[in-house]
Amino acid sequence: MIIKRLILVLLCVFAFMAKSVSASEHTQNLQNMLTPTQMKEDINAWQDFVNNTHPDLSIRIKNTTAFEHSLTAFKQSITKPMRVNDFLSQFAQFNSQFNDAHMLVFTSSQKGLAKEVIKKEGLFPFEVTVNKGKVYLASLLGGSETSFAKSELISINDQPINAIYNTLITRMYGDTVKHRERLLSDKFALFYWLFVNKTEHFKLEIKQGKSSQVIEMQAAKVLPKSFNSKTFEQTFKFEILNQQQALLTIDKFWWQDKERFYSFTENVFKQLKEQHIKHLIIDVRNNGGGDDDMWKQGIVKYIANKPYQHTSKYTKKIIAKYMDEGETEGDVVTKVFDRFEQPVKDEPLKFNGKVSVVVGGYTYSSAILFANTMQDFGFAEIVGEESAGYSWQTGGIQFFTLPHSKLKAVTPRFYLARPSGTQKGLPVTPDKELKDDVLKPTQLIDKIVDEFNTLAN
Fold it and tell me: Which SUPFAM superfamilies match (predicted)?
């Protein structure tokens, strides 16, 4: 009996230890030591992964020779052991050079890491907006309102904000500087913890108007807003605004249960028909992408009045798991895309009114392909601010875990020209450019509604 009890106690202890290890796996991995040989093997493994997956680095990296030289110099500079966190800090400086939010080297799970950090130390206590090299407070971490909203950050713990900005923006991924700033706005608290300072106390110098002040805050033990999972109802929203106009907000083109999304949009277009709505506003300002099927079957099906396509030409790397008959693994293929989606004939819920698609700095990936298609085939007027990402998009992202550091690498396997074949190297440019305020997003919608009312009257 005593032996059985002892075994039971030991099992409980081991279970608790296993749970504790699991609860700190991300932060613990960052503290693991790497030898120079291990780090160089990780870099070589990453290079092999990219060479076997990416169609052409010169698509986004202007000087690939200089890039290769800097990568070689990085490897040669590694002469002493270092922790995974420090290795990441050095390796992540290439993220900004990729000029592509679909290509990065980072921790295995940003959300998982953030969850661990807020349980122990906490994170920088504010959500921020990063714009043109400056950092502004937006809300308390997690999204609660603060009287310091729109204050400009001057320093954190006596370190000038421009030095912090330079450290973080260099390690942020994204198509353009503007795109990296938008993404850094969401991830500032975690990036600060990773690459600047793991502290639980913050002394902030801020400026409101012409007056400056110093405030002191403890680290916040809540998740940054961008890491909070949204419900279906928070992600996909529909609202009848008035007798003539309605707003459909789509914050991503992905949901595990696609049929639920398709039922939702079918009901949207049913209401549009029943309510005799003349103007549909589709807001994808905060849509970071997903699956093209979602917008083709869930939205464009009810709007398209002629054949359409999401790209006119593609370049792809042939990799084993996506290889078609007659293709050779490792080849890079560039082809004209001549397949068109056909409009649904006699669609009973066809919407024939005006469609406005609202884009902005966060619009990305599949959401950019959606905006391109709607614009290039005349299905909608594009309004808002230009996208921070490029209108010619990479995609088909693949994942790889570096063998020693366990860092995660992401890279695309194809590159798509927009349907018109124009605007290479440019963002999605609105037909009607309207300034957006990320802290007051409804103002832009109100302006679109008012302009339609004015024209209608």
Answer: ClpP/crotonase
